[in-house]
Amino acid sequence: MTTLKGRVLLGWMDRDVAIKFLLNDCHFDPPIDEPAAEAIWQASRATVAALPDRPSTVSPNIGLNAAELGHQSKFLSFLRTVGPHDIVGVHKVDIRDLVVRQHYVVTERAESYAQRLQTPRAWLDECLPTMRRNSQIQLRSTQTGMNTYTEIDLPHSEFYFGPNLQNGIFTANEFLRHVTIMDGPDRTYLWAGYHRCFARVLSAPPAAVPNAVVAVARNVLVTPAPTIAALGVATAVDPFGQFGAKAARFGDFFVEGLFMEVDLRKKRYQLQVHANWAAIDDPT
């Protein structure tokens, strides 16, 4: 089996999600079963549970230098050419402070970014691209009667099937690739760009703050209010979730004892599109 080196914040995952991840997405030699996977998760969860609560703060904007301000203008101009978007600005932030909503990274992929990006300009172009990437896809389509089944092989996972914003034709659309953060009421989330951020930390000199210039997305998060249990007792927000007092931060990927090294099963990605023809009664 082909595998890739990865790193996971297992203790922050829910039990069922963690067990499924270990059994279906990781490779162990010898293989493990569900009780063994649960034992691994329980040890990680105990470590996270012992951490003190973390203060919640919105990550400050460190401020852009002249070159970064110039790139910001080009990036925002580029976004205006591709249609509606949710980006409201550009910030420079300390990556380690960002709250995560994805609990694993493929470290081999991140290391390839770190090796390739050697200058401030290269990092700006990678974190805030100013042109579309036109990746190659392969398409196969079969038809049974009036119904159609289509498989679209993708070079990576960042595609969706929908209407092209410029011509309205349904197709495999590639997401724009900017590294994105989102400010919540009391904390800042890393929304997209986990592997490039991991590479950025790897590339930072030992005494330097591992910062990155990133896009800021419009806030669409709603912090959940405590719910009322059947007996009328308020239940608290999950302390290990992204809104909780012990939410995982990106810096945890680099703290011994908080992350786990894993061999990830290599995946390939495919959009599977089913189009069913139907005759529907017209009530008019």
Please mark out the parts with pLDDT under 50 across 5 or more consecutive residues, or reply none: none
Biggest pleated sheet: 5 strands, mixed
Structural class: alpha+beta
Give the C-alpha Rg. Answer: 22 Å
The outline comes out as globular
Can you give the helix content as a percent range? 10-25%
Got a strand count?
A: 15
Number of domains: 1
Mean pLDDT: 92
* End-to-end gap: 58 Å
- List the helices and strands in order: EHHHEEEHHEEEEEEHEEEEE
Question: Keywords, please?
Answer:
single chain; 284 residues; alpha+beta; five-stranded mixed β-sheet; three-stranded antiparallel β-sheet; globular
Describe the structure in your own words.
The chain has 284 residues and is an alpha+beta fold. The chain has 6 helices and 15 strands. It has one domain (56-258). Helix content is 25%, strand content 27%.
Summarize the structure.
By secondary structure, the chain is of the alpha+beta class. The chain has 6 helices and 15 strands. Strand 5 and strand 6 form a beta hairpin.
